[in-house]
Specification:
Blueprint (H helix, E strand, L loop, with lengths): L4 H8 L3 H16 L5 E2 L11 H13 L14 H15 L8 E4 L1 H13 L5 E6 L4 H7 L4 E6 L8 H7 L4 E7 L11 H18 L4 E5 L22 E6 L12 E5 L6 H14 L7 H8 L8 H18 L11 E5 L5 H10 L2 E2 L1 E2 L8 E5 L4 H6 L1 H8 L1
Parallel strand pairs: 1-10, 3-4, 3-5, 5-6, 6-7
Antiparallel strand pairs: 2-8, 7-8, 9-12, 11-12
Length: 390
């Protein structure tokens, strides 16, 4: 039997991140892992904080009856209450556990959100560059992703967003701290975006949702505070995960937080819970829910990423490669010499350096390097980068 046409088409343009990651594995087998400088995938290598291991062992040893059984689709009530306190602190709002839906990572959370809010043909606006899986997540639920350019420094271009708004706009999707640029959108930009969406909603008769994808919220540098989303705009939803903040990408645990001021809030919450069930997630992993509920103040050592960022900047400066200064996350987004990102990535591969073409993020002419690797790897790559630039 043939596969679905949509899947066949998607396979033809599969994620360049995964493609480079797989090519890196082949190069490591051929030349040895210590000879390959793999900056392709954002897979955190920093260990979870010590508190995670302590809580994990404690809960595993308790092994209370029913600990691993089904719970309400939205998650354990006590876990949702604990995370509501975390969200209230970060987003400066007053909410309780009823505003929190536990999710199977941020990816699962975004799919739940789009399942709950999109009708066929609805549009989701996203600033470019962007994490390419967003296109699949919207398409999964009948939506269309509408790309808009950012300003030269990769901050939000509000005029471009305004021009893209239409009667079909269901949501604007933002990601801050940003993958791949590391940009953090300031509070002024969030406020201006909120005003823009309100004005559009008043004229179009439909307020678009503002969906914030925030897995990097707690990885920010130089004492920069990531502005809160929920108090800025009533029709907002925040999707977060512990993949980066606690270095738990394989555990697939996250949450959705809904603005307490949202119109039809109860209906939206019920839709999110129902979508969690019918998408086959059923509920977020039980053990991980209980663990993260006890770690609402814990996070990885961000200073490790800051040192790696600085080390990588020195390598790129010495090689003459221009980049965007990252304010958060763990990526350096660099200009491809000559403007051809595909050719530059191929040239780097000949020197056993792996990055991801900006085309994979909707931004040709740029290349992303992930610095969630040992600092020794970054420093050792210096000569290879110089040779590649010659």
């Amino acid at each position: 039997m043939p596969i679905a046409n949509a899947i066949r088409e998607a396979l033809g343009s599969a994620s360049l991140i995964r493609k480079m990651f797989e090519e890196g594995n082949l190069l490591k087998k051929q030349y040895g892992a210590d000879k390959v400088f793999d900056f392709s995938i954002g897979n955190p290598d920093v260990e979870p904080p010590p508190a995670f291991h302590r809580v994990f062992i404690k809960l595993a040893e308790e092994d209370k009856q029913g600990s691993h059984g089904y719970m309400p689709n939205a998650g354990f009530p006590e876990v949702r209450e604990a995370l509501a306190q975390k969200v209230a602190r970060e987003h400066q709002v007053t909410i309780d556990g009823s505003h929190i839906i536990m999710a199977v990572g941020a990816a699962g959370g975004l799919n739940v959100v789009f399942k709950a809010i999109l009708n066929p043909g609805d549009e989701v606006i996203v600033p470019r560059p962007y994490f390419m899986e967003y296109r699949a997540y919207t398409g999964n639920h009948g939506g269309r992703l509408i790309e808009v350019d950012t300003l030269p420094d990769f901050s939000l271009d509000l005029a471009a967003i305004k021009a893209a708004l239409s009667e079909k706009t269901a949501a604007v999707l933002i990601n801050s701290p940003h993958n791949p640029t590391g940009r953090i959108y300031p509070a002024t930009a969030i406020a201006e975006l909120a005003a823009l969406l309100k004005a559009h909603g008043n004229s179009a008769g439909r307020l678009p949702y503002l969906v914030a994808d925030e897995p990097y919220r707690e990885i920010a540098y130089n004492n920069i505070t990531v502005p809160p989303i929920l108090p800025a705009y009533p029709e907002s939803l925040v999707v977060n995960s512990y993949s980066k903040s606690l270095s738990l990408p394989g555990e697939r645990i996250g949450y959705i937080a809904v603005s307490p001021d949202m119109d039809h809030k109860d209906e939206v919450l019920n839709a999110l819970i129902y979508a969690t069930r019918i998408l086959g997630f059923v509920n977020a992993p039980a053990l991980m829910q209980r663990i993260v509920a006890e770690l609402t103040y814990a996070k990885v050592d961000v200073d490790v990423y800051a040192r790696r960022r600085d080390a990588f900047k020195q390598v790129l400066d010495a090689a003459g490669i221009r980049y965007v200064e990252p304010e958060g996350a763990f990526y350096l987004f660099c200009q491809a010499p000559g403007g051809n990102d595909g050719a530059f990535v191929e040239r780097l591969k000949r020197h056993l350096i792996l990055g991801v073409p900006g085309s994979g993020f909707g931004k040709p002419g740029w290349v992303r390097f992930a610095y969630c690797v040992d600092e020794k790897v970054i420093q050792a790559s210096g000569d290879a980068f110089k040779l590649a630039m010659e």
